[in-house]
C-alpha cells in the first residue's frame, strides 16, 4: 500500500514537471523578434508620428505600439547607439551606428515602444537605418 502511494506521488510529480517545462517553452519563452528582417507595418514621417501621439495617445498606441514601423525624418542628434529624428523620435540601435551626418534625412526601421511623456518623444527600439539621403 505504501509503495502504491509513493508511485502515485512520483507519477504526479513527473506529470507536473513535464507540464511546467511544456508551458515554459511553449508559451513563456519566445525568441526575440528580428525587426531588421521584418516588413514594416507602416511608413510615416517623424513629425506625423509625434502629431498622432500628441492628438490621441490611445489611438496612436493602437496604430503603432509594438509594431515594426519606418520613420523618415531629419537627424537632429546622434550618439553611439541613438539617433534622434526631428527632436521628437528616439531611435535606439542594437549596435553602434556609423551614421555621422546631422541635418540629413534618413529612414529608420524599428519597433515602436511608446511615447515618453517626460521627454515628449516617441521611442523606437531595435532600429536599423534603411535609407540615407
Describe, in plain words, how this protein is organized in 3D.
By secondary structure, this protein is an alpha/beta fold. The N and C termini lie far apart (80 Å). 34% of the residues lie in helices and 36% in strands. The longest helix is centred in the N-terminal third of the chain and has 27 residues, at 2-28. The mean pLDDT is 86. It folds into two domains: 1-30; 35-132, Beta Barrel (OB fold (Dihydrolipoamide Acetyltransferase, E2P)), CATH 2.40.50.140. Strands 2-3-4-6-5 form a five-stranded mixed β-barrel. A hairpin with a 3-residue loop joins strand 3 and strand 4 (89-93).
Write the layout of secondary structure elements.
Elements (H helix, E strand, L loop, with lengths): L1 H27 L13 E4 H10 L1 H8 L3 E11 L3 E4 L3 E5 L11 E12 L4 E12 L1
Parallel strand pairs: 1-2, 4-6
Antiparallel strand pairs: 2-3, 2-5, 3-4, 5-6
Q: Termini, distance in Å?
A: 80 Å
What is the ordering of alpha helices and beta strands?
A: HEHHEEEEE
CATH classification class of the largest domain: Mainly Beta
The main pleated sheet reads as: 5 strands, mixed, barrel
Please state the CA-atom Rg, rounded to the nearest Å: 23 Å
CATH homology superfamily of the largest domain: Nucleic acid-binding proteins
Low-confidence stretches: none
Mass-distribution shape? elongated
Structural class: alpha/beta
- Averaged pLDDT: 86
How many E-type strands? Answer: 6
Give a brief description:
34% of the residues lie in helices and 36% in strands.
Amino acid at each position: 500500500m505504501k509503495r502504491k502511494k509513493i508511485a502515485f506521488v512520483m507519477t504526479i510529480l513527473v506529470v507536473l514537471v513535464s507540464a511546467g517545462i511544456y508551458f515554459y517553452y511553449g508559451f513563456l519563452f519566445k525568441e526575440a523578434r528580428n525587426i531588421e528582417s521584418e516588413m514594416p507595418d507602416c511608413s510615416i514621417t517623424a513629425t506625423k508620428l509625434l502629431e498622432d501621439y500628441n492628438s490621441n495617445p490611445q489611438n496612436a498606441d493602437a496604430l503603432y505600439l509594438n509594431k515594426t514601423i519606418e520613420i523618415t525624418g531629419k537627424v537632429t542628434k546622434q550618439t553611439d547607439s541613438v539617433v534622434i529624428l526631428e527632436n521628437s523620435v528616439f531611435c535606439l540601435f542594437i549596435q553602434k551606428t556609423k551614421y555621422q551626418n546631422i541635418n540629413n534625412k534618413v529612414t529608420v526601421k524599428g519597433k515602436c515602444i511608446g511615447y515618453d511623456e517626460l521627454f515628449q518623444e516617441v521611442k523606437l527600439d531595435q532600429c536599423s537605418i534603411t535609407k540615407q539621403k
